[in-house]
Design goal:
Length: 437
Amino acid sequence: MKHRISCLAFALLAVACTAPSAPREVIPTAATPTLLPSPTVQAQGEAPGSDAAAPIGVVLPTPTPTLAVAPLAPEQVRLRLEPVYRGFELPVFLTHAGDGSGRLFVVEKTGKIWVIADGAVQSAPFLDVSSKITTAGNEQGLLGMAFAPDFATSGHLFINYTDRQGATVVERYTVASGSPNQADAQSAFIVLRVAQPASNHNAGMLDFGPDGYLYVPLGDGGAANDRFGNGQNPQTLLGKILRLDVTTDPTQPYRIPPDNPFVAADWNGQDVRDEIWAIGLRNPWRTSFDRVTGDFWIADVGQNRFEEINVVPSGAPGGYNFGWPIMEGKSCFNAPDCDQSGLTLPVIDYAHGQGDCSVTGGYVYRGKAYPQWQGIYFYGDFCSGRIWALAPDDAGGWLNAEVLDTNLAISSFGEDAAGELYVLDYGGGVIYRMMAE
């Protein structure tokens, strides 16, 4: 997962695993901040005249339609974090089902997924795969999940975990009949299994793109310095982003999209696995699609010097080489000069300093509570706890600014159905909602 998980997580794991986890609970929220739209615009499920914040997972108040709010520049963003849920054991992801239910789903690295419905954490897990996984390597475990675009009708969801042999597994489940807050454990169907030569750099994200295909980021196989030579090896799936059709024929693990960039093509004279959409990645732990533009944001964890953010425009055909291990960020890796021809460099990178060492990718804000944040991408660093805002400028460049310094181990950001954003604290087991200061 991250450098800090590798180097410092023993202390976190010791705290989390030596005592029973606290009950998962809702943290009472304060009154609606003055920067939210007027409380006279009622949230769904909120009593008329109430000034209490809407429950998590419920659509937040909509700004007055006639009021146009200009987006802020990143350096103008004022951010605070409101704790809303706690008691989770090593939370690593939060998402929604996209089915109109407003539910949130929280992934614990130790193997359970929990449902938050109508602002309450359910008493039984949605899914428990703790018997299938290993967490021995600290970066291993249950790492991500995604709901099929047709989840409302198919009931299909996908998870990403490391099995007891240390391999990466993408597995499909179906929601239990008559029990929407529980997956059918007997419906498990393996979509993909990739052997891992080491216990780190497993990546862990799953993303369905606007094209309906499943994007699977995979790390380079671990150890350090791309010891196994996977980043630039087109015949292995490690160090790549895969693009798979997992919905057309549910009787098959997956199909190869016919427009994948390396279908019936080679790369520098070498055969390339048809599943591959992009190469040259070290550990793309968290990725996301902008729900408005369809742009693909890829945060790749660096080695010793730089962390990076890559952006792929919507509809791009793929075939990108993001450079690892030729490059680390925008710099040559372990060499004063290197051949950068054919490489796609990140839009921004940042050097290790002030405790930074492991980027945690986030989301472009598309909620309604803070129209001044529209189009801004938020991301953080697991080790330092810092959070940044990133947005394009009018000259074709990028504006990047630190907007909050926390003491959290930021394992992931999360997005609800309304487009509001959350921050997960790995060590503390707390989920925070991002709010304007």
